[in-house]
Amino acid sequence: MSVSEGVLTSTVNRVLIEVDDKALGLILGVPATGFNPYVREDKFLLGNARLLELAQHLSQQPGLKNPQAVKKGDMQPLHQLIFLFIIKNIIPRAQGRN
Known about the structure:
A hairpin with a 2-residue loop joins strand 2 and strand 3. It is globular and about 45 Å long. The longest helix has 14 residues, at 77-90. The model has no long low-confidence stretch (mean pLDDT 76). It contains 4 helices and 3 strands, in the order E-E-E-H-H-H-H. By secondary structure, the chain is α+β, with helices and mostly antiparallel strands. The chain has a 3-stranded antiparallel β-sheet with strand order 1-2-3. The chain has helices at 21-28, 36-39, 48-59, 77-90, and strands at 2-4, 7-12, 15-20.
């Protein structure tokens, strides 16, 4: 999988898949606002304040004081759905899931 200029590209079983945040939102029938921070390679470009805001939002812990990784089980159902879709359908096992 690779992300370039907001387009997520992956090959699954020799089939090329290219989607942007709007297309993925339409496919899943969910809002795509705020999708871009999920696919950035270098999250530190967002800055600590934005990372903290994302961690608070995704983990449903508004009192969180430091940015940290968020476990799937702590995410909101909509974020879990998007995460699972990407892991199961877009990122092939051979390319890793980090």
